[in-house]
Q: What sequence folds into this?
């Protein structure tokens, strides 16, 4: 109850921190999508390259987030960006790569050859085949990858408060330092609710973006 | 052409290594590793880190495996959907938030950190155990029944060995996340390698920062590799061949 009071008393600040959080996650997700989806599509043509790319993204994922911030700080400090939003956004982009690349790769790879052949038979060139056939079929799985990345990024962005990136993690950080339970709870609950909301809305997006034909097929197979 | 690319690749790798070495020397990380006063501290923090990871993972594995196994028994199958939903909801909650929430209820110290880490590692293990055992084809279980195996025999000799790959994947995810989250456990007074990372950030001491961040990263990579080795050892040869 007192947590609610804290949030209501500081709603201006809460909204600002929330906006910062959304901004960080949103912008990193946009850049990560712009890098990851084309990369995932390109590597479907080359098995060997695909293994290398996915393995390196996997290694990236294994590095603990706070350790990554720590390792990046001295390097970025050379260009005067050791603290703040830049290291946070770079880390978020790096962490999003694995789910996005892997899901894009798997989804495009799994488009059945008969459908692809049908497209070819209709006289589509490679670009049209990708645009009209492969991507629409793959889009639910690609969005699922984006969903995983978004939820993970919200958690990492909270940790980024410790390198001065702002966001809702600031409440957790300051709350722990001041032993102020209401502040900690406000930060932790808001971040959790934010993550759950994003998860749910991305799940909805996944369903909306599924082509009607595939939805019918799914219902028939059940 | 391929040889040239390989040579360029090797050259870039070598240059990168040199750059990393120079960077480590310049920031003073090398000297901190060989400092007679800092070195025992590093070992102590590393042990603390391993202790937190070990205890929480041990508890999480026992609980996670038993929950996963119990939920696949016929009597509890009906609740699988609900439990899975709760588990996946729990996984969307950020790790820092879990630590902070636990701290407000249990206070600071190693105990609350272990509690938070256990809960957070429990979810992937339980989920993958459940999914792995549920994915065992019914025909295989039927064949085992036909051979006169008891329910327990089927569980230990058929279901768990066949689900082992999936269970180990869950274990690996949990372990890697756990090692990373333990670095945050310093914030709620449990120590570990996070001590040097956060001190380094707060004081802008690059040497301490890297000396803290590097071991955690290596630890996570090592754990990932060891689970891969464990997979080769524990998953039976026939299953591995069909997977590959």
A:
């Amino acid at each position: 109850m007192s947590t609610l009071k804290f949030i209501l008393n500081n709603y201006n600040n809460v909204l600002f921190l929330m906006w910062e959080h959304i901004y960080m996650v949103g912008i990193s997700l946009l850049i990560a999508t712009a890098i990851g989806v084309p990369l995932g599509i390109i590597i479907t043509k080359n098995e060997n390259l695909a293994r290398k790319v996915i393995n390196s993204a996997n290694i990236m994922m294994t590095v603990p987030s706070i350790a990554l911030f720590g390792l990046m700080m001295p390097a970025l400090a050379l260009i005067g960006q050791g603290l703040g939003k830049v290291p946070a956004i770079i880390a978020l982009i790096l962490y999003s790569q694995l789910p996005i690349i892997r899901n894009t790769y798997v989804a495009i790879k799994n488009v059945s050859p008969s459908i692809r052949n049908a497209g070819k038979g209709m006289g589509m060139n490679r670009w049209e085949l990708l645009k009209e056939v492969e991507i629409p079929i793959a889009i639910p799985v690609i969005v699922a990858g984006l969903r995983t990345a978004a939820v993970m990024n919200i958690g990492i962005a909270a940790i980024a408060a410790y390198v001065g990136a702002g966001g809702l993690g600031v409440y957790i950080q300051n709350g722990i330092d001041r032993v102020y339970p209401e502040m900690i709870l406000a930060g932790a609950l808001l971040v959790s609710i934010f993550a759950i909301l994003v998860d749910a809305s991305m799940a909805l997006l996944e369903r909306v973006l599924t082509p009607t034909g595939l939805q019918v097929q799914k219902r028939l197979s059940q | 052409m391929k040889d040239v690319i390989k040579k360029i690749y090797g050259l870039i790798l070598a240059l990168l290594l040199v750059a990393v070495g120079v960077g480590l020397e310049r920031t003073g990380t090398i000297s901190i590793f060989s400092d007679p006063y800092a070195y025992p501290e590093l070992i102590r923090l590393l042990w603390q880190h391993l202790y937190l990871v070990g205890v929480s993972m041990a508890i999480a594995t026992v609980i996670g495996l038993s929950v996963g196994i119990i939920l696949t028994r016929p009597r509890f199958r009906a609740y699988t959907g609900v439990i899975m939903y709760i588990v996946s909801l729990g996984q969307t909650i950020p790790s820092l938030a879990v630590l902070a929430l636990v701290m407000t209820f249990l206070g600071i110290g190693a105990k609350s950190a272990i509690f938070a880490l256990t809960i957070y590692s429990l979810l992937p293990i339980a989920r993958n155990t459940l999914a792995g055992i549920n994915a065992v084809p019914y025909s295989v279980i039927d064949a085992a029944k036909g051979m006169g195996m008891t329910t327990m025999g089927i569980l230990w000799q058929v279901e768990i060995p066949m689900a082992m790959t999936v269970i180990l994947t869950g274990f690996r995810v949990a372990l890697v996340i756990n090692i990373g989250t333990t670095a945050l456990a310093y914030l709620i007074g449990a120590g570990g390698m996070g001590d040097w990372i956060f001190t380094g950030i707060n004081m802008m001491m690059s040497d301490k920062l890297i000396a803290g961040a590097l071991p955690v990263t290596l630890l996570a990579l090592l754990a990932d590799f060891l689970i891969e080795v464990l997979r080769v050892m524990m998953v039976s040869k026939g299953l591995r061949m069909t997977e590959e």
Notes: Chain A is about 85% helix and 0% strand. Chain A has one domain: 2-221. Chain A has a mean pLDDT of 90.
